[in-house]
Amino acid sequence: MVQVHVFDRSGNLIGPIDSPRLELSAAEWQQRLSPEQFRVLRNQGTERPFCGTLLDNKQAGVYSCAGCGLPLFDSQSKFHSGTGWPSFFQPIAPTNVLEITDDSHGMVRTEITCARCDGHLGHVFSDGPKPTGLRFCLNSESLNFTAADELAKLADSVAELAPGPAADASAAEAKVESPQEMATAIFAGGCFWCTEAAFEQLTGVLDVMSGYIGGDPKRIDYKSVCTGTTGHAEAIRITFDPQQISFDQLLDVFFDAHDPTQLNRQGNDIGTQYRSAIFPADESQQQAATKKIAELNEKKKFPTPIATTIEPLTKFHPAEDYHQDYARLNPDQPFIQSVSMPKVCKVREKHAGLLRKETDGAGAKNFNEKHE
């Protein structure tokens, strides 16, 4: 199962909601797709520039996966990049598009795939326009287009499992006509199983992804990072709505979700991969982080000076699939029970005003149940 955003019969985007992965044999995919779609989606092909049928499409609507129909991008995030491929500055929902390190052709790039069927979509680059600064470069053959007045055609059967309008709204329901301007924050504070769970419960946090940052781009896997020799930090990338929660509030939670006075460790987890660090996305985040550390040290909030470093933003590499949502999916795991959940509860106690309604005032057990 994957958690994604889908359209209901009224043409509303709802979620995140559990949806089964679409896994087919090569022969089944060949029956389902055209030869060119199969080459691109299933064999990581690339169509010729300036030849895609959707490159110059200026209609309002939604671009969905040609393999499984999952909505991926909307027309309001589409822009003319001059590269020869359809380009977007953000997905329709961060859950629906996965990022994977691609080191083929003698270079390191970030491949983007459909979260439900793993179909190859294209790549994402950091030379896009505001508000994200990203350019999601897509193949037309990976996409189907549905006009804005026909979104009911994209109705997904799993949408019927949604608990109702109130729950839909609290789970980031959004109409395609009003896309959210999202921002990102990247923090490292020890094991990402803990920090991910602490931030997932906050209002305005749309997605939290565990990953690695700051090290050798040729050694990006959990086993290598755990040696402490790659230079990476276990980190989380938070996608958030600045209209609901500010970067400064995220900083407050960050400093309460771990011990920022420990150098290159968190408890029994020892090594530079467990360091406390902030990776600012821009100058405003840099200034906010610097100011926050100075204020906390001046007020002597902690018994010893803060060891958190502010490091240059480098490429964030998503961790392996089994690390994502680890605390939520493994609530009975001993480390989660003894280390992660106490941090979750500490954040809930100290930042009650920032919690999602479904977790407000609830205990760690209820937190797990509400998110399953």
What would you say about this model in short?
This protein is an alpha+beta fold and 372 residues long.
- Sketch the topology as an H/E string, one letter per element: EEHHEEEEEEEEEHEHEHEHEEEHEEHHH
Q: Note the overall shape.
A: globular
Low-confidence stretches: 164-180, 360-372
Radius of gyration: 21 Å
Query: Helix content range of the residues, please?
Result: 10-25%
The main sheet comes to: 6 strands, antiparallel
Oligomer: single chain
The DSSP helix count reads 10
Q: Could you tell me the mean pLDDT?
A: 87
The neighbouring-strand order within the major sheet is: 5-6-10-9-8-7
Task: Identify the notable features of this structure and list them briefly.
six-stranded antiparallel β-sheet, six-stranded mixed β-sheet, 24% strand
Topology (SSEs and partners):
Blueprint (H helix, E strand, L loop, with lengths): L1 E6 L5 E7 L6 H7 L2 H7 L19 E5 L5 E4 L3 E2 L7 E2 L8 E6 L6 E6 L5 E6 L9 E4 L4 E5 L17 H6 L12 E7 L2 H9 L4 E9 L8 H4 L7 E8 L6 H10 L8 E2 L2 E2 L5 E3 L4 H16 L10 E2 L5 E3 L7 H4 L4 H17 L13 H7 L2
Parallel strand pairs: 17-18
Antiparallel strand pairs: 1-2, 3-4, 3-11, 5-6, 6-10, 7-8, 8-9, 9-10, 12-14, 12-17, 13-14, 13-19, 15-16
How would you characterize this protein structure?
The protein is α+β, with helices and mostly antiparallel strands. It has ten helices and 19 strands. The strands form five sheets. The chain has a six-stranded antiparallel β-sheet, with no helix packed on it. A hairpin with a 6-residue loop joins strand 7 and strand 8 (109-114). Helix 4 (192-200) packs across helix 9 (334-350) and helix 6 (247-256) packs across helix 7 (283-298).
